[in-house]
Structure formats: C-alpha cells, structure tokens
Amino acid sequence: SQQGEEDPQALSIQEGENATMNCSYKTSINNLQWYRQNSGRGLVHLILIRSNEREKHSGRLRVTLDTSKKSSSLLITASRAADTASYFCATDVLRDYKLSFGAGTTVTVRA
Amino acid sequence: DGGITQSPKYLFRKEGQNVTLSCEQNLNHDAMYWYRQDPGQGLRLIYYSQIVNDFQKGDIAEGYSVSREKKESFPLTVTSAQKNPTAFYLCASSIGERQPQHFGDGTRLSIL
C-alpha cells in the first residue's frame, strides 16, 4: 500500500531557482527518507529524517518534517540542470520497518 | 568500489517462461530487497530478506520467487504465474532495517 504521496507530480523551474516538493503520509512513522532517481537509473538516498527531528540539511537540500500534519517537504536551493530527476519520499511506519514509497515528483531544471 | 550490480539491464520473456534477475552486492549489507516500478508510480515491494536463508513476502509477491543462499546475492525469479511482468525491477540493500537503502541500476523486463 502507498503510504506517502508527493505533491506536485511535476515541477519545472529555471536554473538557479529553488524547488520545493511535499510529501504527505497517513500513519505514524519512525523515519522519513528522500531519494532521487535519474531517468532509467536506480534510486539514490538523499536524506533521512527521524520522527523526533524537525529539520535537516545536506548541502543544497533542506528537509522539514511536521509529524502533527503528517507531512514533509524537500527544498532544493539554487537548482542546477543536474538536479533534473524524480524525487521520492519513503516512510517506515511504527511496528513495520518496510519502506513505503510515494509516486514521486518529477523535477525539470531548465538551463 | 562497493555497490549493487543488477543484470541483465534488459530482459525479454516469452509466454510461459520463467526468468531470473540477478542482484549482487559487495557492501556487506544484511538486508536486501526487490521492488517493482511501473511508469509514473512509486516502488512496490516484492520480497525482502533480512538475513541469509530467510526472506519475507512484500506487498506484491504473487508470481515471484527469491532465494538468499549467500549474503551477497538475492536473485529474483519472475514465474509464468506473473501475468503482467512488464516493469522496471530494482534491487536494494541496507545495513539493517530502517536504514538508507542502496539501489542497483535496475532490470527492464518486457514481454515478447
């Protein structure tokens, strides 16, 4: 079953702009992870944020988590053409450590 | 250089045929996973294994089988019972449960 849902489904931005995508989920979680997938490739792990954390940074990436709203956001600052990819959130729920992936947000960065 | 290797990159299956997708990792990870990805959708878990000689069904295990005889290897067989096998198959591994997963570059399976 699909626990997380990303929004928007697709996003097109100019190089240098920021990109924000959101993930909503249904049941309480232990952790939430964000992954990137380039076309025709496997997923690459970006960030893991624990349920007791509210914000986390990694380079140009900023992730927030609001457990009261059951939502997370991924911000990519100063986007580059190489950021063109699909981004997925994945949650592991309490008492079940399997990851559940959303359908992803496809980001296109225009030069 | 550590990683996960999936082969082949492309695979074609005839009606009534079983095919096996290979997944090998040299990351010394205990846990391994198989996912199916259909166009425009997220990943759906087929099977996972937390330790050698043990594995569990995921959300869509029907028509698939796996084995975990070695820590490094977790092959997936798509049987003739899987009536809609056309998809992108991804293998992943992790140090343990709830940890970030490392993915291979996938096998694209099509029907002849």
Relative strand content of chain B: over 45%
Oligomer: heterodimer
Major sheet attributes of chain A: 6 strands, mixed
Q: Taking all residues together, what is the mean pLDDT of chain A?
A: 93
Low-confidence stretches of chain A: none
The fraction of residues assigned to DSSP E strands of chain A is over 45%
Span between termini of chain B: 35 Å
Main interface by residue count = A-B, 22 and 23 residues
Q: Which term fits the overall shape of chain B? A: globular
Shape of chain A: globular
* Spatial extent as radius of gyration of chain A: 13 Å
Count of DSSP H/I helices of chain A: 0
Query: Which radius of gyration of chain B do the C-alpha atoms yield?
Result: 13 Å
Q: Helix tally of chain B?
A: 0
Secondary structure class of chain B reads mainly beta
Q: How can the largest sheet of chain B be summarized?
A: 7 strands, mixed
Helix content of chain B: under 10%
Low-confidence stretches of chain B: none
Describe the structure.
The complex is a heterodimer of chains A (111) and B (112). Chain A is mainly beta. In chain A, strands 2, 4, 5, 9, 10 and 11 form a six-stranded mixed beta sheet that branches. The mean pLDDT of chain A is 93. Chain B has 112 residues and is mainly beta. Chain B contains no helices and eleven strands. In chain B, the strands form two sheets. In chain B, strands 2, 4, 5, 6, 9, 10 and 11 form a seven-stranded mixed beta sheet that branches. Chain B has a four-stranded antiparallel beta sheet with strand order 1-3-8-7, with no helix packed on it. The mean pLDDT of chain B is 94. Classes of the chains: A mainly beta (111), B mainly beta (112).
